[in-house]
Amino acid sequence: MSKQQTSPCPELKTNSTLPFGGQVEPQEDSAAPAPLRRTLALTGLALVASTVLTGSIGSSHHERFPSHLSADRQVILAPKSGSIESLAVKPGQIVVPGNVLFRIVNRSAEGKRGDLEQAVLRLEQELSSAQARAEVETSSSIDNLEAQVFAAENQLAEHLASKYLESVRAKAWGDFGSLFDSLASSKSDRLDIRPLTRDLQDPSHQIEAILKEAEAENKAEALQTRIELSENRLKALRQRAKDLPRQHAVAAKVPQIEKRLADARQRLADYQDPVAEDITTPVFGMAGNINRNIQDEVKAGELLVEIFDRDHEFLTATLPAKYAANLKPGSIVKIHFSEGVREGSIEAVPPQAKTNSKGEAEVDVRILPTGKVWPFMPIGSTVEISLN
Questions:
Q1: pLDDT at position 337, please?
Q2: CB of 290 closer than 8 Å to CB of 302
Q3: pLDDT tens digits, residue range 2-31?
Q4: What is the Cα–Cα distance from 144 to 150, expressed in whole angstroms?
Q5: CA–CA distance, 208 with 180 (Å, rounded to integer)
Q6: Extended beta strands in the chain, E state
Q7: Pairing outcome for strands 64-77 and 382-387
Q8: 363 near 340, Cβ under 8 Å?
Q9: What are the residues facing 229 on neighbouring strands?
Q10: Please, are residues 307 and 287 in contact by the beta-carbon 8 Å criterion?
Q11: Mean pLDDT over residues 313-322, rounded?
C-alpha cells in the first residue's frame, strides 16, 4: 500500500495588502503555518494603529498655540497746551517712576504772566502818582488850616485874658460898693474918719460902683461865650486837619486804585501755570510709539506717549472654540519660554466665539502671570502656550 505524502503549504505567490497601505512580502520558505502568519500580521497592524491613535490623542492634548506678550497701558497726556522743548525718551525704552519724558513750554502762559505783571506795575505807578497828588493837596490845606488854628488860638487867648480882666474889675467894683456900708458903720473912739470920706459917701458913687460891677460881669459872660465859640472852632479846625489826608486821598481816587492793585496782585499770585513743566512717568514700564518731535505744538489732553506697565503684564492668545468648554477663569496653562516653561492663569473666557477668515470659531483669552516669574521679553513678543 503506497503511503500518501503530505505536501507542504503552497507558496505565497501574491502580496497581501495591509490596512494603512502596508504590505506583507511573500515568503517562499517560511516554516510557520499560514494561520500563525495571519495572527502575527494582525497583531502588528493593531500595534501600529494603537501607536498612531495614541500619538494623535497626545498631540491634541499638548498642542501649542501662539500668544503675544502685552501689558496694561499708562496713557501720558499733555497737562496743558504748549510746545515740546525737549524729548527724553525713545520707543521701546525702559522707564522707571520719576523719569522725565517730555518738557513742555507754555508760551501763552509766559505771555499771560507778563501781562499780569505789567498790570500790577502800571497800577503801582498810578497809585504812587495819586498818593503824591493827595499829599501835595493835603500839605497846602494843612498850611492854611494851621494859620487858622493859630489865629483861633490867639483869639481864644485874648478872650480868656479879657474875661479875666473883666472878672477882676467886677470884683473890684463889688468890693468898692461894699466899702460904703463899711464906712457908714465905721466908728472909732480915737479917730473919726467920716469927715475924710465924706465925698465917697455920696450915693451917686455907690450907684456908679454897682453899675460898673454889673458891666464887668456882663462883659465877662460875653467873653465866656466867645471863648466857647473859639474853642469849638479850634477843635473843628484840628479835626479838619486830621481828616484832610483821607479827604484828599479819596479825591485823588487812591482807595479805588489800591483796590484794583490788590485784585491785580491776587490774580498774579493765583496764576500757578508754570512756563515750563516736566512730564514724568508714574510707572515702571516700556515706552510705546512716540509720534511727537521737539518744537511740536500740543494741546491740553492730547496723547504724548503710552507706557506699557511691566508690573502688569499678560499674554493674549486666540484658541479654537472647541477648547473653550474646558476653560474657565483661573485655568492653568503652560507657557513655553526659551528660558523654560512657566505657568499662567486664564483671566476670563468670552461667552461668545468669533469666526476667523477660514470660517473657524475662535475665542480670545487673556493669560495672567502665576507661579514663577516670567522671563523678561519685549512687549509684542510671541511665545507658545499649551493647555493642560
A1: 93
A2: no
A3: 444 444 444 434 444 433 344 444 444 444
A4: 10
A5: 12
A6: 16-17, 23-24, 64-77, 82-87, 94-95, 100-105, 276-280, 285-287, 297-298, 303-320, 332-337, 340-348, 354-355, 361-370, 382-387
A7: antiparallel
A8: no
A9: none
A10: yes
A11: 90
41: exposed, middle or buried (C-beta count within 10 Å: 0-12, 13-18, 19+)? Answer: middle
Lowest-confidence segment of 153-157, 265-269, 270-274 by average pLDDT: 270-274
Q: How many whole angstroms separate alpha carbon 282 and alpha carbon 270?
A: 27
* Cell representation of residue 327: 476653560
Q: Rounded mean pLDDT of 156-168?
A: 78
Which region among 137-146, 170-179, 191-200, 375-384 has the lowest average model confidence (pLDDT)?
191-200
335 close to 383: Cβ distance less than 8 angstroms: yes
Report how far residue 334's alpha carbon sits from residue 338's, in angstroms, rounded to the nearest whole number: 13
Q: Would the pLDDT of 1 be above 50?
A: no
Please tell me the least confidently modeled range out of 123-137, 234-248, 285-299, 309-323. 234-248
Q: Give every CB contact of residue 5 below 8 A, 6+ residues apart in sequence.
A: none
311: three-class secondary structure by DSSP: strand
Helix axes 254-270, 107-185, angle to 10 degrees: 140
pLDDT in tens, 172-224: 777 766 666 665 555 544 445 455 445 555 566 666 666 777 777 777 787 78
**Nearest-5° Cα angle at 57, 54 to 59:** 105
Three-state secondary structure of 191-203: CCCCCCCCCCCCH
Please state, as a whole number, how many other Cβ atoms lie within 10 Å of the Cβ of residue 292: 18
Question: What's the CA gap between 258 and 249, in Å, rounded?
Answer: 11
Distance set, CA 286 to CA 34, 128, 381 (Å) = 74, 58, 13
Count Cα atoms within 13 angstroms, Cβ side, for 306.
8
Contact 293, 87 (CB under 8 A): yes
Tell me which DSSP letter residue 22 carries. -
Long-range contacts of 133-140 (CB under 8 A, 24+ apart): 133/248, 133/252, 134/245, 134/248, 134/249, 134/251, 134/252, 134/254, 135/245, 135/248, 137/248, 137/251, 137/252, 138/244, 138/245, 138/248
pTM of the predicted protein model: 0.44
